[in-house]
Specification:
heterodimer; A: mainly alpha; two-stranded antiparallel ribbon; 15 helices; 3% strand; B: mainly alpha; 74% helix; globular
C-alpha cells in the first residue's frame, strides 16, 4: 500500500505521471511540514526575533543533534527494527571523549576517530545480533542500553571524569565567522544539512530502496534478491555512527554529564513517527523524519515561550505528542 | 496463531478420552511455549547455586528462596498485565510512571487512617481503569501507535507527579503496611497476591472469549477485524487489564515502603524491565504467541540473577552489563531453537 499504488500508471504520459506521483507523496508526508510551518509562524508571533537569521540559526544549531539522531533512527525504523540504544550511546560518546581528551587539544582528532569507530562497532553488534542471531531488535538494543550504560560508568568509576578540549567543543559551539548578514554559520548547521542531503540521496539509491523493501515485506525483498541481513546491519551501523556524531555535537553545547543522552532514543523515535514513519517498517521518508525532529525542537521552544516550564512541561509535551501523531495519522489516511 | 477451534464433541468412550487427555497434557507441557523458559530458569538457578556456593554464600536455603520470591512480586504483577498487551501486539511504556502515581495516590488518600484503606484502594483501581481506557482509546480511536501513545501517557503522568510531589508523601496505616510483610509459615502473603493475579490472567487468556480474542488480534488485527471481532474493544480492555496490574503493583509497593514515592516506578525500571520479563518468558513481541506462565518464569530468572549479583557483591554498573548480556543471550538461545 505504498503511495505509488494510489496513482494509476498512465501509458506514454511519463511526466504527468511523475508529477502526480510527486504530488501524492507530498500529500502523504506533507502534514509534518504544515505542522512545522504553523509552529514557526506561531513562535514568530510570540517572539518576532525568532525569524531573524541569528536566533533562527541558533534554533537550527540546537536542533542539529536531534535531527541527526532522527535520521539514524529512521534508517533502523524503516527497515522494520528499533534502536533503543542511541541515548546511552550518546552518553558513552560524551563520557569517553571527556576522559580520553582530558583537556589536551592535541588528543581531539584521534579521539573523534575513535568515537566514530565506537558508533560503528555498536551498530555492527546491534545489527549482527538482531539479524544473524534473530533476537528482536527491541531486546537487542535494550540489552545494549544496559551494557553501554553499565560499561562506561564501570570504566570511569561511577561519574564522568576528565574534561573536553576547546577545539573539541568548538565543533558543537563555533562556526564559520564573518559571513555577512548571518554573521556566523555554525558547524553543526553545516553538518545538519550535509547529513540531511546525504541521507536523502542515500534513500534514493539502491540501498535506500532495498531498505524500504526489506521493512515493507522481508520475504518478498529476500526473494527478489535483496541481502536482507546486510541491509539491516548497515542501517544499524548508520544509526550508531550518527549517534556518535550527535554525541560529539552535544558534548560541545553542554557540559559532560551522566544524563546527557537520557531519553534521546525516545525523542528520536517520536520525531520519526511525527514525520509519518510507520513503526514496523516500510513506510516514511527521511526528510519528513528530520522535519519531525525540527518540529519537536520547535515544540520545546514554543513551550518555553508559553511559560510552561519545569514540572508540567512533561504533561503538556505528552498531550501534544499524542495529538500531533494522531493528527498526522488522520491526514495520512485522508490523503490516500 | 494458536488454535481457537473448540474441541469436537464426538461420541467416544470416556476412558479413551481420558487417556487422550492425559497424553495431551504431557505433550502440552513440553510443547507449551513456557517449557524452554523453565528449562532456562532451572539452568540459571543451578549455575547461580554453584557460583554463589563457591563464593562462600548461601543460596539454596529457605530464607534466600523466599527472599527471591518476595522480590519477584512487584515485577511479576505488572509483567502479568504487560503480557496481555504484548500478546495483543501492543505494549505499555507507561506502567512505571503509573506505579509511582498509584503509590502516591494510595498513601496520600490513606493518610495513616485505617478507615481510608478501602476508599484509597477504590481510588487507585479507578485510576488504573482510567489510564488503561485512555491508552486504549488513544491507540484505537486516535490511531496513535502504541509505542508513542503510552510514551505520551507516561510523559503526561510524570508531569503530574513532578508538579505535585517532590519527595515521599502520605503514609499507609499499620494494618495495610502489614499486608506487605505478613507471612503464612515461610511464604509471604504478597506471593499469594502474585499467584492469584497470575492465575486470574492465565484463566482469562486460556478460558474466556476475551482471551481468545487477544490471541486472535495479536495474530493478525486485520484478519480478526474481517472475521467480525470488535478489535477496538479488545485492545481497550486489554490495556485496562495492564493498567490495573500496574496500579496493584503501586499499592503493593506503597504497602512495602509505608509511603508513596514519586520515583518508585522509574527507579525499578518497571516499564522496560516488565517487557524484558515478558520476552524472556517466550512471548513474541509481535503478539499472538506466548502466555503468562512463561512470563512468571522470566520474572523468576531476573530475580535469581538479582539475588546472585547481590550475593557476589557485584558492582552496580557491572550488574547492568551482565544483565544486558544475559538478556540478549537468553533470547538468542530461544531464537536458535
Amino acid at each position: 500500500m505504498s503511495t505509488e499504488n494510489a496513482t494509476t500508471p498512465g501509458f506514454g504520459d511519463e511526466t504527468g505521471d511523475r508529477g502526480r506521483r510527486l504530488l501524492s507523496s507530498l500529500m502523504g508526508t506533507g502534514t509534518i511540514f504544515v505542522l512545522l510551518l504553523i509552529l514557526w509562524v506561531w513562535i514568530t508571533i510570540l517572539n518576532p526575533s525568532f525569524a531573524e537569521p541569528g536566533p533562527f540559526l541558533a534554533y537550527l544549531k540546537r536542533s542539529a543533534p536531534l535531527v541527526i539522531l532522527a535520521a539514524g533512527a529512521y534508517f533502523v525504523l524503516v527497515s522494520g527494527n528499533f534502536d533503543l540504544s542511541v541515548g546511552s550511546l550518546v552518553t558513552v560518546i560524551v563520557v569517553v571523549a571527556a576522559r580520553l581528551i582530558d583537556g589536551d587539544p592535541s588528543n581531539t582528532w584521534p579521539v573523534i576517530v575513535l568515537l566514530l569507530v565506537i558508533g560503528v562497532v555498536v551498530g555492527l553488534v546491534n545489527g549482527f545480533i538482531s539479524t544473524v542471531l534473530r533476537v528482536p531488535s527491541f531486546i537487542t538494543t535494550l540489552g545494549m542500553l544496559l551494557i553501554l550504560n553499565g560499561a562506561v560508568f564501570l570504566w570511569t568509576g561511577g561519574a564522568p571524569r576528565g574534561a573536553l578540549a576547546d577545539n573539541f567543543r568548538s565543533i558543537g559551539r563555533q562556526g564559520i565567522n564573518g559571513i555577512p548578514w548571518i554573521e556566523q554559520l555554525p558547524w553543526s548547521v553545516l553538518l545538519l544539512f550535509a547529513i540531511g542531503a546525504a541521507s536523502a540521496l542515500l534513500m534514493r539509491s539502491d540501498f535506500g530502496r532495498q531498505l524500504i523493501a526489506t521493512g515493507d515485506n522481508e520475504r518478498a525483498a529476500r526473494l527478489s534478491g535483496v541481502r536482507v541481513n546486510r541491509v539491516r546491519i548497515l542501517a544499524f551501523v548508520l544509526s550508531g555512527t550518527l549517534a556518535a556524531v550527535a554525541g560529539i555535537l552535544l558534548a560541545g553545547f553542554g557540559g559532560v554529564s551522566a544524563q546527557v543522552g537520557q531519553g534521546l532514543e525516545f525523542d528520536a523515535i517520536t520525531a520519526c513517527v511525527l514525520g509519518g514513519v510507520v513503526l514496523g517498517g516500510g513506510r516514511g521518508s527521511v526528510v519528513a523524519a528530520m522535519a519531525g525532529a525540527l518540529t519537536l525542537e520547535a515544540l520545546f521552544t514554543w513551550l518555553n515561550l508559553q511559560g510552561i516550564s519545569g514540572a508540567l512541561e512533561d504533561t503538556v509535551q505528552g498531550v501534544i505528542i499524542i495529538a500531533a501523531v494522531s493528527f498526522a495519522s488522520y491526514r495520512l489516511r485522508g490523503a490516500r | 496463531m494458536t488454535v481457537v477451534d473448540p474441541p469436537e464433541q464426538s461420541a467416544g468412550s470416556r476412558a479413551s478420552r481420558r487417556s487422550e487427555r492425559v497424553a495431551g497434557w504431557r505433550v502440552g507441557i513440553l510443547a507449551s511455549p513456557a517449557a524452554p523458559v523453565y528449562g532456562a530458569l532451572i539452568g540459571i538457578f543451578v549455575i547461580a547455586w554453584i557460583v554463589v556456593t563457591i563464593h562462600g554464600g548461601t543460596f539454596l536455603t529457605v530464607p534466600n528462596v523466599v527472599n527471591m520470591l518476595q522480590r519477584s512480586v512487584a515485577l511479576g504483577i505488572v509483567s502479568a498485565g504487560q503480557t496481555v498487551v504484548i500478546l495483543l501486539g501492543s505494549l505499555d511504556l507507561s506502567v512505571a510512571q503509573l506505579i509511582s502515581l498509584a503509590s502516591l495516590l494510595a498513601a496520600t488518600t490513606m493518610d495513616g487512617q485505617d478507615a481510608n484503606v478501602v476508599p484509597a484502594i477504590a481510588a487507585v483501581l479507578a485510576l488504573g481503569v482510567g489510564v488503561g481506557l485512555a491508552n486504549g482509546v488513544i491507540i484505537t480511536k486516535l490511531r496513535v501507535n502504541a509505542f508513542i501513545a503510552t510514551l505520551g501517557t507516561a510523559l503526561f503522568i510524570s508531569g503530574i507527579i513532578q508538579n505535585r510531589w517532590d519527595g515521599p508523601a502520605g503514609a499507609v496505616p499499620k494494618s495495610f503496611e502489614d499486608l506487605g510483610y505478613t507471612r503464612f509459615g515461610v511464604i509471604p502473603l504478597s506471593f499469594f497476591l502474585l499467584a492469584v493475579i497470575v492465575v486470574v490472567v492465565w484463566f482469562i487468556l486460556r478460558n474466556t472469549r476475551f482471551g481468545y480474542r487477544i490471541y486472535a488480534v495479536g495474530g493478525s488485527e486485520d484478519v480478526s477485524k474481517l472475521s467480525g471481532l470488535r478489535t477496538h474493544r479488545t485492545i481497550i480492555a486489554a490495556h485496562v487489564v495492564c493498567s490495573l496490574t500496574a496500579v496493584i503493583t503501586g499499592l503493593f509497593l506503597a504497602s512495602r515502603l509505608g509511603a508513596g514515592t514519586p520515583t518508585v516506578g522509574t527507579d525499578g525500571g518497571y516499564d522496560l524491565e516488565s517487557i524484558a520479563a515478558v520476552v524472556l518468558g517466550g512471548t513474541a513481541l509481535a503478539g499472538g504467541r506466548g502466555g503468562v506462565l512463561g512470563t512468571l518464569g522470566g520474572v523468576f530468572i531476573l530475580a535469581v540473577l538479582d539475588n546472585t549479583f547481590n550475593q557476589l557483591e557485584l558492582n552496580a554498573f557491572l550488574k547492568d552489563v551482565v544483565r544486558g548480556v544475559i538478556l540478549i543471550a537468553a533470547i538468542a538461545v530461544y531464537a536458535l531453537r
